[in-house]
């Protein structure tokens, strides 16, 4: 199913950016993920995107939503419903990656989340995202964090 070639960081970055936008749309418009995925694949040039990664994150986050929100809720004093859709989508993506993409170093997940929140989030969103992802890494990737 998956090719063994190492993912290109630029393609992975683009996949995360599109996945964030698609998850935002899923959250706000409440359309089926399959419909959103089809639209994104049709509307975007996917040649320079890690498409496998995009699809995995886009399908995996909604499927694991309550589990992800449970982890996120433990590490913030804000209710999930009070977060902006962008913050929530970034935190869900990061939490999903911590759990299901052990191949991705936790520092990469945190950095990518912070970068996405600087690009798409409100003024101080990156501080919030950084703090929550950092705490999540301590729980979900403790062995990696300690080494």
TrEMBL record:
Keyword RNA-binding: yes
Cited Pfam families: NusB (PF01029)
GO cellular component: cytosol
Biological process per Gene Ontology, one example term: DNA-templated transcription termination
Coiled coil: none
Highest taxon, organism lineage: Bacteria
Sorted UniProt keywords: RNA-binding, Transcription, Transcription antitermination, Transcription regulation
NusB/RsmB/TIM44 domain segment(s): 14-137
UniProt keyword Ribosomal protein present: no
Described function: Involved in transcription antitermination. Required for transcription of ribosomal RNA (rRNA) genes. Binds specifically to the boxA antiterminator sequence of the ribosomal RNA (rrn) operons.
Alphabetical list of PANTHER family matching this protein: ANTITERMINATION NUSB DOMAIN-CONTAINING PROTEIN, N UTILIZATION SUBSTANCE PROTEIN B-RELATED
Family: Belongs to the NusB family.
Alphabetized HAMAP family for the sequence: NusB
Official protein name in the record: Transcription antitermination protein NusB
Species annotation: Reinekea marinisedimentorum
